[in-house]
Amino acid sequence: MTPMAPRVALFVPCFIDSSFPEIGVATLQLLERLGCIVEYPFNQTCCGQPLANEGDQKNAAACEALFVQNFAGYDYIVGPSASCIHHIRQHLDAIEQTAEVTQVRTHAYELVEFLHDILQIRDFPWASFPHKVALHNSCTSLRSLQPPLASMSEIRGPVFSKPKELLANVPGIEWVELERADECCGFGGLFSIFEEGVSAKMGYDKVDDQRRAGAEYIVSADMSCLMHQKGCAQRLGYGQKYIHIAQILNGDTA
């Protein structure tokens, strides 16, 4: 008997929808290439994370309730952002914890972990990327999302990297290693607004490290970090480029 194709609800975070729609498109196309039945709930908006982080539970509740209304009942909810998925799993608590809320919280997956852990895909034959590449793992993907997407350098234990395992069979990638790969880039959502000077300095340190390593591209599963780093690199006049992992795995031309 042929196994049923996974039924996936595509969650596109609001900042990706407004500023980087090509990543939402790449995620959709990639999932469909891999045989998923993908649906996009058209009434989706923000998951409520920025409001919840600021302590505005009243308005966060409205976002969270709408999110549950849109995504309840799906086998898998997949989004290309660790921080948003972490919020859905761990902090969707401004609303009453009904059975629907619990179902949504327990069926939400970040894109890399969905590909790596659920679909267990390792080959993307349509993809190639002939460039020197450095990997950026967001703080959330390492230290908040459970299980994490990669091992943390400050903790002794098995060394692993789900993003690198997915990219291992993409022809042309030449990995370059950063001196302080796990160091925060300084974005941190609202942190970059309330602590602008500290955030910018951390970002400059990060892009300096990337430049010294000789990276042509920095790849990550979190576009919010890449957005911050791209801005820092541009202000310093650096030439490295920033790309979401979904774009490489989908075979998008750099």
Structural description of this entry:
By secondary structure, the protein is an alpha/beta fold. The chain folds into two domains: 7-117, no CATH class; 122-249, Rossmann fold (3-Layer(aba) Sandwich). Helices cover 46% and strands 11% of the residues. The protein is built from 13 helices and eight strands. The chain has helices at residues 14-19, 21-33, 49-53, 57-71, 82-90, 99-106, 111-118, 139-143, 162-167, 191-194, 196-213, 223-236, 245-249, and strands at residues 7-10, 37-39, 76-79, 108-110, 132-136, 174-175, 217-220, 241-244. It has a four-stranded parallel beta sheet with strand order 2-1-3-4, sandwiched between helices. It has a four-stranded parallel beta sheet with strand order 6-5-7-8. Helix 11 crosses helix 12 (223-236). The termini are far apart. 41% of the residues are buried. The mean pLDDT is 92.
Descriptive tags:
254 residues; alpha/beta; Rossmann fold; 2 domains; 4-stranded parallel sheet; 8 strands
> Whole-number radius of gyration?
18 Å
Oligomer: single chain
Q: Helical stretch count? A: 13
The run of helices and strands is: EHHEHHEHHEHEHHEHHEHEH
What is the SS-derived class? Answer: alpha/beta
Give the total of beta strands: 8
CATH-derived architecture of the largest domain: 3-Layer(aba) Sandwich
Give average pLDDT, whole number.
92
Strand proportion: 5-15%
Q: What is the straight-line distance between the termini?
A: 40 Å
**Top CATH class of the largest domain:** Alpha Beta
Give the overall form: globular
Largest sheet: 4 strands, parallel
* Structural domain count: 2
GO molecular function, one term: oxidoreductase activity
Protein name: (Fe-S)-binding protein
Domain Cysteine-rich: 8-89, 133-228
Pfam family, one: CCG
